[in-house]
Amino acid sequence: GGGSGGGGGGSGDLGGSGPGRFDRVLCKEVMHHLEDRSRFLHALRRNRLRPHARLLIVTRPQVEIDYPLWPAATAVWAAAQPAEAVLVEELKLAGFTDVHACTRAFACSVPVDQWCGLIESRFWSTFSNFTDEELRAATKEIRARSSSDPLVFEDRIVLISAQGE
């Protein structure tokens, strides 16, 4: 969607005039918003990175998640989130080298009411696919099945680093 970086509403267009060239670029939780990741990655490498520049992508796993969600949200998440292997391949096809990926996990503890409030406020784009009524029903379900307060789950972050040339 819009505002996803690269100008052109997520098109990945990084050509023409712009901010210059960089030694380091961080793409944090944006890759799943780009309409054409391949075009974005090619343009980034060609037009915005200095020689030997490094790119770090920070994202979340496509399917191996532990968040207290409901089945419809999990399905939307998986459909929108690119798999780690897909991102790695796209980087290589765009000419990036020295591509490495790893997943880091850490324990999270969030009060049930706070978690449900975050969902209802659509803190992740996943939740923009649901109406207010659907989100209220989902958080009611989460509250009903919660055996503890706070909710305890494992968050997982995927880190993918690559060199521009």
Automatic annotation (TrEMBL):
**Gene3D superfamilies this protein is in?**
Vaccinia Virus protein VP39 (3.40.50.150)
Note the InterPro entries from the entry.
SAM-dependent_MTases_sf (IPR029063)
In Swiss-Prot or TrEMBL terms, this protein is called Uncharacterized protein
- The scientific name of the source species is Chrysotila carterae
- What does the record give as the organism's lineage? Eukaryota, Haptista, Haptophyta, Prymnesiophyceae, Isochrysidales
